């Protein structure tokens, strides 16, 4: 990635999802390890960075936290364009927030054409008592669209770091795969056109490289 | 050009040019026209922090690099022979009718270059500059930068005017007080020999004729009482020596924010994101309410006013009002008279008087009228107000029960998840009663405006109105930000709610295309902003471009929330005084304010080397301690930008390679 000036590779990650599912809270917890019940609703988007070390390699994440309201949907491309990863966050106690991420997935697949790692995230597991979306349902859905799946709670700080580690690992795997592909054989790319299949153990398949134009 | 540099501007007469030359090199005084100008060495100017005198070719005094065109456009032609004589001076010819425009141009480039200015002109120019009418004084009544220097010496007739400079310094709130020793420049008496011997060109002759035909008029008004001048100048000097801020005490809500503790951008960004998890400790109101103050009590208090103690020191030590304070006081009195008068209010006059800030006590009335919510005629005001307030409650009755209907429940859901997340640092907005008010106002507005519906961010726009109209009902020494609304009679709260509704409706009517599908208004304004910046600060523009920072990524919010997320609420309220006084304040003027706001941070942004740094800085600009001064500068800068660029876009398009 050429965007960063530091030596460590930079990955761009965008957080998408319905309003008030906890996108900003997840980010706040991750960056600052804080939680705040009453922070401002995000209008437009906000930006944060953090370095982390995965498999002994330091990478930098550029994270865009977007606004949830449907009205801002049209702004999405500004933020997800060029991302290597997208977190699709929903609230496990809110069915419609789960439906909303399906729209995002469809759009991302269309626009980014599998170049980005998708991670479906069920937030607010601390409210498990009022859970509406069963874990199995969500996992199944994630699998069906070739996305990773994770659950977390920003409030209780459950699995927040793991979230970003998971997506980073997957993005790194994908990046190295892509570069191998590029190095290896353009021949192979042109003959084998695989569909994207990303599995949980970060053993990612090659990204489908559609012939462009 | 660095801060501390001085641009010399001289007006056209030989006398003034000579004066300027003499000022810079007193030895030459008797030697007729000066052929080479040395750097400033005059003892008069020793205290000026002069680094270098600017090179006119490098730093043209008009906007961008279009000097020649601009000048032609405003009928200012450089006098080439004088340009050679004066080297780095830039003599410009300006006819009086276009002087205002010309000064705006100068100001734009001066603000951009952050240099000081020494303006040497005739009495006529100083008269124009200090003339209380029109909007011009606004531009010059705020100090540009800490070291900016404006001097206008009236010396055309030679009998100028002991104390004139002091008087003007006082008027302009000259910040650099070392200057008080500057007096009349004697060299001005030098007869403009060259101009007399040469046969003047036709245009020159016309101008001279014109100038001399009206010169007595110009000079007539400038007779100055020397004692008055000296005392007022002394006061200014003392004021600056004390480091006291005068107008701020009067104009801003009394609530100093907490300086952001961390220097770390990232931390700051996240703090902004979360608006801090631990609200700061606020002193109890009992200490504050003991001493209701003459000045600070005029404005509503908001947020943490930890500085109550410091700002409650009465203004007495300063020893009486300065001229500028007097000007403000006069303006406030005028406003007060207008608003309490039984006749119809002249809107134009009202706008003019409100532009620079409205005192707290008058603000609710002024805002209601400026919004167009109530009529200008006093007799009809009460009736209309009652009717409108009734109307609102009828709407509530009519629509509010539909909030859970299939058709509307989505809107209401969005409102009800946003309202509790507003202004987390201000306790007022955490109260259940207040949140219910906001839900009603926003919901009623949304169902009555189906084209846009409710959009996140609109909730922010209600807050200034709510705070201002609420402050009307509570004692001025109580902090509005932590006021318990349930203490107020319900009938009064209902009035606040209805007024807020109607005023925010009026505001949103002017910017509705910001919130309709795909938000075309915002897209357009962001594009305008980008365009504007490329002209006024090409370096910053390039820097953002090189680092792949897109304007939409930060400026979208500036437009969507009218900068409310970038500056503290009390500054927003002060800014809205100006917006409401502009004809298209929220729609058009705002773009220029954004441009002025952006280039305010030019230096810091240029210091950031990469996308991350720029983005994090833009998300957490250090405006927490903003006061009236900053808003005055911001709006003055924006006003001059608008004066130059508004409606002139096509003209500029042809000049600037894109």
UniProtKB/TrEMBL annotation, chain A:
UniProt keyword Nucleotide-binding, yes or no: yes
Keywords from the named record: GTP-binding, Lipoprotein, Membrane, Nucleotide-binding, Prenylation, Protein transport, Transport
GO cellular component: endomembrane system
Localisation: Endomembrane system
Pfam family, one: Ras
Region entry Disordered, spans: 192-213
Similarity-based family: Belongs to the small GTPase superfamily. Rab family.
Record-given protein name: Ras-related protein Rab-21
Organism in which the protein naturally occurs: Panagrellus redivivus
Lineage: Eukaryota, Metazoa, Ecdysozoa, Nematoda, Chromadorea
TrEMBL record, chain B:
PANTHER family documented for this protein: LD44506P, TBC1 DOMAIN FAMILY MEMBER GTPASE-ACTIVATING PROTEIN
Low complexity bias spans: 306-317
Database matches in Pfam families: RabGAP-TBC
Protein name in the entry: Rab-GAP TBC domain-containing protein
Gene source species: Panagrellus redivivus
Limits of the Rab-GAP TBC domain: 357-583
Protein's job: May act as a GTPase-activating protein for Rab family protein(s).
PROSITE patterns: TBC_RABGAP
